[in-house]
Structures are given as structure tokens and as C-alpha cells.
Amino acid sequence: MEQDGKLSSFIEDAIVLLELAREESDDSQLGEVAEQVEVAGNQMRSMELDRMLSGPDDFRNAIITINSGAGGLDAQDWAEMLLRMYLRYATERGWKADLVDQLEGEEAGIKSASVIVSGTNAYGWLKAEAGVHRLVRISPFDSNARRHTAFASVFVTPEVDDDVTIDVRDDDVRVDVFRASGAGGQKVNKTSSAVRMTHVPSGIVVSCQNERSQHKNRDMALKVLKSRLYELEMKKREAERAKVEAGKADIAFGSQIRSYVLAPYQMVKDHRTGFENGSPQRVLDGDLDGLIEAFLLKRSQGEEETGHSSELSSR
Predict the structure, then answer these.
(1) What residues contact residue 4 under an 8 Å CB cut-off, 6+ apart?
(2) Closest-CA residue to 121 (of 275, 296, 285)
(3) 184, 221, 282, 284 - which has most CB atoms within 10 Å?
(4) How confident is the model at residue 5 (pLDDT cuts 50, 70, 90)?
(5) Which of 245, 249, 169, 164 is nearest to 202 (CA)?
């Protein structure tokens, strides 16, 4: 209600200034009117974003897991580029990003990485990134300078805290310990401090090796595992509530949600919304707001249409 009052005040002030400018034929006041309109527009945008980020888990921290896909060295390099992009995006928004696990590639890039992003509505924003990301560029690993296509998948799950109970039975989890390693398999820890957890019923595998203590790595791996199981349970419940889950094809693992083309032209395009950005380097440097806002707006509109249709069919 407070935001509504501020917005109404901005609009009323703009109308009064516009009427005064017309009555006095004073064009100098038009600049002030434009400023008021801009403030009102920004206020409306803020209110719209708050409305779109009202899901049950949107307020939570987010866990991002990146895996390189098809494309060999280019895919591993691409996975590392995505990791850098999300770390920079988190920094730009004033969020905290903790690297939980990172598996280096043998020659370049990374095979996988997991990051916990802590901040206001982190999951609400970053859930838009779940899916497969495609890169087209002149490969730096090709001596003939040919174009290559590489893929990497991104999982995004809400971090589960103490107010959510996820029962993980000891009998369902296989725990393996191993030595943490760096690039090229170089040992960075002489003790078996790294932990890999496999949840046998679901097949979910998580690992953590960034802490020196095996106990800390075990706790962090369990936290990530619980978040993955929580997301799995939420998807099951959504599927039960709706026979056709809106947007499922868009965000499911294995689908291509976005293309980043660096050659022969420069373009980033989100295939779910049609939103395009002609400056891929800015996107790779963390400028994701436009892409994410377009996704949230489309999803919000789709949910409204689905709800309206359900209301009509129930009459």
C-alpha cells in the first residue's frame, strides 16, 4: 500500500506540473515533468518485479550448478565463462557468492562447478538461468580458426534452510571421500578431505572439495543434496497439481534456453522469450537483468493466463 501511495503521488505531481507548463506556456518545466514520469516508471517497474518475485522460494538463496556438455574443450571453456558470468552478476547485485565445488578440465576450462549465491531474492532471479546454454564462436582451440558450437547446462535450486524439513536417510546415501585436486589432476591436499554424496533412490550426485576439512565438506555437500531433493519434491508436487506444467519445456534440463553468438555476428538470444541483446560481451560480464526480467515477465503473464482459464472453466 505504501508503494501504491508513492506511485500515485509521483503521477499526480507530474500531472500538476504538466498542466502548469501548458497554462504558462513554459517549456522549461517539461524537463521536470519528464523526470517525474521517469521516477514513476521506475517505481512501477520495481512494483512489477516485486509482484513477479512472490513465489514460495523466490526469497531464498540460490545454488547454481554448471556442467560442461557437448563440445570438448570449447564446452569446458564455455562452462568456465558461465561461472565467471554468474560470479560477476552476483557481485553487481551486491550478493555473496561462495564457490562450493569446481572440477577443472584437463587442458582448459572446467567440467563442473557449484556456487551458493546469497542475497535478497537470489533464487527468484537466478531460476531464470536453469537449462542449457549454447555458445557459437571462433574456437581458440582450433588452429584453423573455425566456428564451433559448445553447450553447458545450468541447474538452479533454492538453498534449503532449517525451516524446511528434508528427510535424508543414511541408508539412501553413499558417501565417498577422495583427495581434492587442482587443474590437471595436481594434488592440492594430501588428505582425503573431498566428499562425494550419491543419493541412491534419486541418482543425484553432489560433491564438495573447497574446504580443507572433510567434516566441513560433508556438511556443505549435504546442504546441496538437500536443496536438490527439495527442488525434486517441489517439481513432483507441481506435476500433481497440473497435468501440463506451464513452462516445463522451457526450463527443464536438456532444453536449449539461450544462444550466445560471437561469430559471424554478435547476439545473445533467449529462445523462451525472444529477448535479444546485441552486446554479448556485456552479458558475459554479468549484464543479465534484461534477459532475466523478460523471462520473469513472460512467466508471470503465463501464470495469470493459466489462472484465468482455470477460473473460467470452473464456472
Answers:
(1) 47
(2) 296
(3) 221
(4) low
(5) 169
What DSSP character marks residue 117? E
pTM: 0.67
Question: pLDDT grade, residue 275 (50/70/90)?
Answer: very high
Residues 115 and 257 in one domain: yes
Q: What are the tens digits of pLDDT across the range 181-219?
A: 654 444 455 567 889 999 998 889 988 887 778 888 888
Domain of 40, in residue numbers? 2-52
Residue 295 has pLDDT above 70, yes or no: yes
Collapsing DSSP states into helix, strand and coil, what is residue 182? coil
Locate all alpha helices (DSSP H) within the chain, ordered by sequence. Answer: 2-24, 30-52, 72-92, 122-126, 214-241, 248-251, 280-284, 289-313
Residue 274, burial from CB neighbour count under 10 angstroms (0-12, 13-18, 19+): exposed
Give the C-alpha separation, 117 to 123, whole Å. Answer: 8
Query: CA 275, CA 267: separation in Å to the nearest integer?
Result: 10
Residue 273 lies in a domain: yes
Total Cβ atoms within 10 A of residue 263 = 13
Q: According to the 3-state scheme, what is the secondary structure of 222-264?
A: HHHHHHHHHHHHHHHHHHHHCCCCCCHHHHCCCCEEEEEECCC
- What distance in Å separates the CA atoms of residue 76 and residue 104, rounded to the nearest whole number? 8
Whether the CB-CB separation of 264 and 147 falls below 8 Å is answered with: yes
Query: What does the alpha-carbon distance between residue 77 and residue 289 come to, in Å, rounded to a whole number?
Result: 23
Distance, in Å, from the CA atom of 15 to the CA atom of 18, rounded to the nearest integer, reads 5
Residue from 65, 254, 77, 81 nearest 148 by CA:
77
Rounded distance between C-alpha atoms, residue 196 and residue 218, angstroms: 8
Residue 242 has pLDDT above 60, yes or no: no
Same domain, 160 and 299: yes
C-alpha gyration radius of the chain: 23
Tell me whether residue 313 is in a domain: no
Angle at 24 between CA 19 and CA 27, to 5 degrees: 80
Tell me which H or E stretch contains 131.
strand 131-138
